TrEMBL record:
Gene3D superfamilies, per database record: Glutaredoxin
A Pfam family per the record: KaiB
Coiled-coil stretches: none
Name of protein: Circadian clock protein KaiB
Name of the encoding gene: kaiB_2
Signal peptide: none
Gene Ontology BP annotations: rhythmic process
Residue ranges constituting the KaiB domain according to the UniProt record: 29-110
Region spans: Disordered: 1-21
Family matches, as CDD domains: KaiB_like
Length: 116
């Protein structure tokens, strides 16, 4: 995490981007504070989760609040790490290292692959 913001999957978070119009595409922001164990765990867990459950249907923006603390106000970040699902609406937040897959599935409103 060398930048204030890091995007994955080559998707720019432009307001008019096609991904923003797809209700099956997830735009996720992960707020962290530096290279702490919790921040690194949350980042790794989110990447693993997305590849397993949202392959090809997501982009991740990692925001390091140690580098740009003012960005916390926009999504009302009170604790870190915090994952914010920007799209699809409605906005959702999950606080923690994202190690509990079931909690992340419920928090992001995603059905497990084996669910009917």
């Amino acid at each position: 995490m060398s930048d204030d913001k890091g995007l994955e999957k080559g998707q720019a978070p432009d307001e008019g981007a096609e991904a923003d119009l797809d209700p099956n595409h997830y735009h996720l922001r992960l707020y962290v504070a530096g290279q702490t164990a919790k921040s690194l765990a949350a980042t790794a867990n989110l990447r693993r989760f997305c590849e397993e459950h949202l392959a090809g249907r997501y982009d991740i923006e990692v925001i390091d609040l140690m580098k740009n603390p003012k960005l916390a106000a926009g999504d009302q970040i009170l604790a870190i790490p915090t994952l914010v699902r920007r799209l699809p609406s409605p906005l959702k937040r999950i606080i923690g290292d994202l190690s509990n897959t079931e909690k992340v599935l419920v928090g992001l409103d995603i059905r497990p692959k084996d669910a009917p």
